[in-house]
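Field reference: sequence -> structure
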Amino acid sequence: MAQYIAPMFRLAYLVLAFAILSAGCKKEEPEPPAAPAATTPPPAPAPNDPLTMGNPSGAIASVVLANNYLIERPQFSLAYDNSRGTASWVAWHPRACSRPL
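Structure field:
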């Protein structure tokens, strides 16, 4: 009887090994390559835009960033720091009509 047990275990190990290998070797379908995203150039700044050279601190007009809040007016742009109660930076574009007389 012992002579039949060893081949049965060997057969069970082979079946188990085959099952594990076949489960791990499933062929997956390759994903199709993603289409390249269409990049649009940033809008051209207005001729008298104070932020023509960029936003120094990356401020945005959102209450989420209360300590780097962007305020834009026709005359100037500034980043307000709520914790200090002052502006972090101010940018303006001088015009001929804004010079003192």
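Note: Residues 30 and 87 are 53 Å apart (CA to CA).
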